[in-house]
Fold this sequence. Notes:
By secondary structure, the protein is of the alpha+beta class. The protein contains 6 helices and 11 strands. The longest helix is centred in the N-terminal third of the chain and has 29 residues, at 62-90.
Amino acid sequence: xxxxxxxxxxxxxxxxxxxxxxxxxxxxxxxxxxxxxxxxxxxxxxxxxxxxxxxxxxxxxxxxxxxxxxxxxxxxxxxxxxxxxxxxxxxxxxxxxxxxxxxxxxxxxxxxxxxxxxxxxxxxxxxxxxxxxxxxxxxxxxxxxxxxxxxxxxxxxxxxxxxxxxxxxxxxxxxxxxxxxxxxxxxxxxxxxxxxxxxxxxxxxxxxxxxxxxxxxxxxxxxxxxxxxxxxxxxxxxxxxxxxxxxx
Length: 248
Ligand SMILES: CC(C)(COP(=O)(O)OP(=O)(O)OC[C@H]1O[C@@H](n2cnc3c(N)ncnc32)[C@H](O)[C@@H]1OP(=O)(O)O)[C@@H](O)C(=O)NCCC(=O)NCCS
């Protein structure tokens, strides 16, 4: 496959031996969004049921979160397993497009990661920002490779929040424009979350622009909920949503 945009209907073959072993791990997650696929409409409206949870002003209604969670968790495991199986199946391919998922191993991968991520950023990061995350948490950085080309990357960290909560943080995620909507972004996030679970994470958070529909869809499909709205968070004046996935 060359670097031309993938045609609709093209699928990808995931060449990753760890894929099947990930599924049982992921079934331990509390991923509510798959239970109530009501979230495809207006992401900004208040009082919508998004992700299976009640929302106020675009974020999760915490007062109702626990009772919602209880109700949803009981139905969760089977649906979650089905969803992940479907996601894997949807990435298995008629055409010979092999996506390899690899962990970060060398500084030589840094230019590829930066090139990919910088294309989509509204605020550029310095090399030191990349190094801060990647050198400190190399096991939480994954690349998606197609024919030796880096077509996706995720950069994360995991540390203590308020001295008690082991909080994973997804700092950067990008997929090459020509390879989007093929499940690569979701697979990268799932790998990062699995690595965080292996390291006893309690929760995972991230921020994204409130207007970033692809990112919101991706994360909400994986069970993240809208936890906070951060007004004018970005230099361009756009609000952010903090999304959170509870792992315990
Ligand atoms: C966000 C991004 C990483 C998604 O990567 P991707 O590989 O296309 O994502 P996936 O193929 O795994 O898609 C995940 C879900 O999002 C949906 N989605 C992806 N792009 C979409 C779009 N443009 N509009 C609506 N939904 C979209 C997919 O349909 C899929 O949902 P489904 O499983 O219900 O079909 C990619 O669009 C990107 O790199 N964007 C620029 C950088 C960015 O915004 N990063 C996130 C910062 S937090």
